[in-house]
Amino acid sequence: MDSAKPRFGIIISMFPELHETFILRELVALEKRGLQFDIYSLQYPRDPITIDDAIRLSTERTTYAKLISASSLLAFAKTLFTKPLKTLSAMGSVVWQGRKRPKDVVKNLAILPLTLQFYQLGTARGIKHWHGHWANVPTTACWYLHKIYGDSWSAAIHGEDIFSPNQFLSHKLDAAAFSVVCSGYFCNHLQTELGLHRPADVHLNYHGLDPRVMLRSTERSFNARAKDQAIKLVSIGRLVPTKGHDVLIRACALLKSQYDLKFELQLIGSGPIDEELKTLAQTQNVSEEVVFRGGLAFEDVLSTLEQADMFCLAPRLIPGHPPDGIPNVIAEAMALRVPVVSTRVSAIPELLETGKTGQLVEVDDVEGFAKAIAELANDELLAKSISDAGFKKVGRLFDQQKNIDELIALFERYVPGKVI
Questions:
Q1: What is the full DSSP assignment across 369-389?
Q2: Is the per-residue pLDDT at 2 higher than 50?
Q3: Residues 174 and 264 in one domain
Q4: Does 71 share its domain with 55?
Q5: In a domain, 311, yes or no
């Protein structure tokens, strides 16, 4: 192997992105371990950057550029002149492989000039390997650089768009040196359902939890609730149909009418069905018990979780909507020793096992969800057992240091040169 230490180009659709803090944490951890990399963002940030590490990385390590500019068009013209056959062949593959998804073809062709501009900037910086986050256009950008210039690349897949018919994704992953994916459920799907030529080169690599959660978790113990106190329920997630907040609200109505259970549900998040859910709470006669908190800062989210007796989330899969893998909020609640009730969907059973590390309910089972909450509310020994076991399991699977070690080991195995 080449003894030269390679520099990596990390391609992301948008850096930083508020709901992708797991990518930020991974990059900070890789930086601390000595990995040399630059970030190439295909879009400018949409929201104000408020996290210190994100501000630093966006300023010191990230390149931004317009999708279409004189520089990107010049890079495209230069590449078309120097490597006409490979460039046209790559464009033809995009059209052919994506022929059943014309909108994706347009997106994938549109990023080519910017990708080639990033290549010119990256090679000047000594980049030898490209790493794309998500299954969509960032991996297309890396694939372009492999097809046209022969650069090695790898993919980090986080669940977006892997379950919809996508022939181009399998074509791209076959060309990658390796891929990592953030849950066993997603990993199994990629290995068995896409017809990959090298399924063994798709690897499971869980995300690490935010260090602020782990710091708090070491100081936590199970919350014992006084018998006469209302149980404090918390749910966190965007107010969208896939999160199943409607199921939880209907279950709360049963807690009130059938189980005579005193409770308060704090629902943290914002989204397009906000008013719809508030109306549902009124019609279900739980508007006084269900408190809509809106979006909160992360520290406020953690403080709310620490005061909770139970965390509840009822995700469902809806065709055409991005699927949940393992929602970070479930892992965070478990790390803070808060018992969790959720649905048997996607990768959630990798964390929750009914009666042991959590309570699992079938999707859209309102009565089952209410029963699971009531059982935990009325059985303190069960709640404490789940709290302790859940804390241990999430600490084992979401150990940031261990997962970064695994990722670096994959880079060492597949990328020429000593990585760190």
A1: HHHHHHHHHH-HHHHHHHHHH
A2: no
A3: no
A4: yes
A5: yes
